[in-house]
Specification:
The protein is mainly alpha-helical and 214 residues long. It has one domain (34-203). It is built from nine helices and no strands. It is elongated and about 60 Å long. It starts with 6 loop residues before the first helix and ends in an 11-residue tail after the last helix.
């Protein structure tokens, strides 16, 4: 006869069910971070999955806040939508490949390069953005090519990072497409990655320095 489910059991099940990004591969999530310490350990031991929610909230808030402060100080587009998804992965799956510094940086840089290539291929490097000129056939081709190249190359490099799909669309749509803006996007990625790593280490998660452990 099976025993009744306890509160920790329910929290454990909820942790496995509450994020589709980890539905197929859970390794590296906040559920059971080995060697945790400091705030992360305190929150997890005291509040279980709710403590993990607080950790993700605090880490994402601080990392994006730091990136935003840099964007404000230098008046550059260092803050853009796909970094929100990156911050989530860094703090929600800190030991997984998808949230590692390697996948984060490689994922976004490949996305930027793929978009730049697609813009050149469709002669859109100096064109107005899709918001200004509307969605044309060439723009659709550039966006589709950028997303396809990003996915294929990241698969070959074994550097999956889903937010890269958003970054490549941002650049391919012409929202950030000049040389200066593309450079700022790359710098923004590095800022969030470094900030996320430093915060994870400071708050109690032994995040990998570069690549996730096999």
């Amino acid at each position: 006869m099976s025993r009744p489910a306890t509160a920790p059991d329910i929290d454990h099940l909820a942790e496995f069910a509450d994020a589709s990004v980890r539905a197929l591969h859970r390794r590296g999530s906040l559920l059971g971070v080995p060697g945790s310490y400091g705030l992360k350990r305190l929150l997890s031991e005291r509040w279980g999955n709710r403590g993990n929610a607080v950790y993700t909230f605090v880490g994402s808030l601080l990392a994006i806040g730091m990136s935003g402060a840099c964007a404000y100080a230098f008046n550059e587009p260092l803050l853009f939508p796909s970094l929100g998804a990156t911050a989530f992965l860094i703090f929600e799956t800190p030991l997984a490949e998808v949230g590692s510094p390697r996948n984060t940086i490689v994922g976004h840089l490949v996305a930027i390069g793929a978009a730049a290539f697609a813009l050149a291929a469709f002669d859109l490097l100096d064109a107005s953005s899709a918001l200004e000129a509307g969605v044309t056939g060439a723009r659709i081709g550039a966006v589709a090519l950028a997303v396809g190249l990003t996915g294929g190359l990241l698969r070959l490099l074994r550097s999956a990072h889903p937010p890269g799909g958003a970054t490549t669309m941002i650049v391919a749509l012409g929202l950030l497409s000049s040389g200066r803006e593309i450079a700022a996007v790359a710098v923004g990625v590095v800022i969030v990655t470094v900030a996320g790593w430093l915060l994870n280490r400071a708050l109690g998660v032994p995040a990998p320095v570069w690549a996730a452990r096999a």
